[in-house]
Amino acid sequence: MRATKRRPVSVGEMLRIEFMEPMALKVVDLAQAMGVHRNTVSNILHDRTVLTAPLAIKLAAALGNTPEFWLNIQHACDLWDTRNRYNEVSKTVRPVVALKTG
Fold it and tell me: Which residues form the HTH cro/C1-type domain (predicted)?
C-alpha cells in the first residue's frame, strides 16, 4: 500500500463538511436522533474520541448511510497515525520467509 504524506479526512471533518453544514444540522439534533448525549456528538465532531462500532451504527442510521462508511474513515485515520508514529520501528522488522519442504 502506498504511504501518503497527508492525513486522511477524519470522521469529524467528514461529518461536519458533508453532513452537518449542508443539512444545517445542530449537534443537539443529531445527538437526539442518535439517542446519545450531545457531548458524544461534539467529541466525534472535534475528533476528541475514536468512533466505535456502536456509534458508527447509530450515526449511519441517523444519516442514512452505512456503519462501514464511518468505520472505514476511522480506520484510515488510525492506520495513517500509527504508520507515521511507528515508521522507524517497522524498519527493524525482518520479513518471514517460508521454508521449503520436500
Answer: 29-70
User: Which residues have a Cβ under 8 Å from the Cβ of 92 and sit 6 or more positions away?
Assistant: none
Model pTM?
0.84
Output 60-65 pairs: Cβ under 8 A, ≥24 positions apart. Answer: 61/34, 62/30, 62/33, 62/34, 63/19
pLDDT tens digit sequence for 38-71: 999 999 999 999 999 999 999 999 999 999 999 9
DSSP state letter for 86: S
Joined together, the cell numbers standing for residue 91 give: 524498519
Using alpha carbons, select from 40, 39, 33, 78 the residue that is nearest to residue 58.
Answer: 33
Looking at residue 15, the DSSP 8-state letter turns out to be: I
d(Cα 54, Cα 61) in Å, to the nearest integer?
11
